[in-house]
Amino acid sequence: MFEIIDKHGEHEEVVFIRNKDVGLKAIIAIHNTTLGPALGGTRMWDYKSDEEALVDVLRLSKGMTYKAAAAGLNLGGGKAVIIGDPKTKKTEAMFRAFGAYVNSLQGLYITAEDVGTTVRDMEYIFMETPYVTGIPKEFGGSGDPSPYTAHGTLMGIKATVKHKLGTDSLKDVHVAVQGLGNVGSNLVEFLHQEGAKISIADIDKEKVKRYADQYGADIKDPVGIVTSECDVFAPCALGAVINDQTIEGLKCKMVAGGANNQLAEPRHGGALKEMGILYAPDYVINAGGLMNVFVELEGYSAERAKTKTTQVYDNLIKVYEIAKDQDITTEAAANVLAERRLTDIGGLRQHHQGRMSRPFSTLKEMTNRQK
Ligand code: NAD
Description:
The chain is of the alpha/beta class. The chain has two domains: 2-65 and 77-132, Rossmann fold, CATH 3.40.50.10860; 146-338, NAD(P)-binding Rossmann-like Domain (Rossmann fold), CATH 3.40.50.720. Helices cover 46% and strands 14% of the residues.
């Protein structure tokens, strides 16, 4: 276990949780709290082995540090995994026990919904700890983050178009959106308001037809859309859509969408650069949802959350400038942006000990929310 932890980055703390009475086996990984409390969702998954779960939580928590840092948020990176089949193994007692463990970390780690967990599960966790975000609006939470992820993605598409084509407007820019789920459907609506030319695809044929009628969008095949003729390809469904099978067929000028893990492997980022296709690193362009929960920690306002997501535009412009200056991939440039902030703010904190605002000041607000 310790070898695996050493191999996957310099985590501050890794907590193993076992409660046999409620069938709970979980791991919380706190990667870095330089900028603030470690925030990241709780994933419930039927991992084949405990090692597999550990590697996943270590990798995902490190990713959260980079995501928050590049987004300009005062949050650190963390993540939790619950080992078990989310379809059959969930109970109220399990999530409340998990909430009690999260509480014992006193705000060092803040959890949220993720793959395999739901808002309902977050409600159980909230019964035991205030250190959970993305709780329903009726409890003072921010509810579904997807419209904010979509709005941030729109801002990211604008920044990408500005950098690549030099224009401020999306009017008549052809955007191909793969996936009309929570993020994609909101994005299509925003793109329509901007006057973009839209192509859409989803495996749900009925939904595609409905959106095509409503927004005058062109329907594409769910697989074919990846290599279709367009200005911007916006992946909003699955991960790994840029892979060995698709990359040579790409006809877009830009890849900018909300999906996680769009590149099958980092080398595909290098290939996009070679081909002259501008890639908006996924974790930078889809940070709108994280910005939304950050606003929830401060005391929620939908208007402030929406304004906050416009920062995705500036963040991506910075990424593109670094990539150009250093002649590196945009993904590598995003990592540079995140690491710079961690070094700069970490250094400032050391220098001005005690005189800077505490990175954990948001926690006071969280504990004020009503159960
Ligand atoms: P979702 O499950 O609501 O939507 C996914 C959509 O993709 C569904 O409509 C599904 O039918 C469709 N789909 C599945 N396979 C497809 C295929 N082969 N071709 C075309 N469409 C296909 O998910 P979501 O919340 O909209 O998230 C979409 C992506 O964005 C995911 O990768 C997710 O990790 C990422 N993301 C979401 C958020 C958020 O706030 N929801 C935040 C950050 C990142």
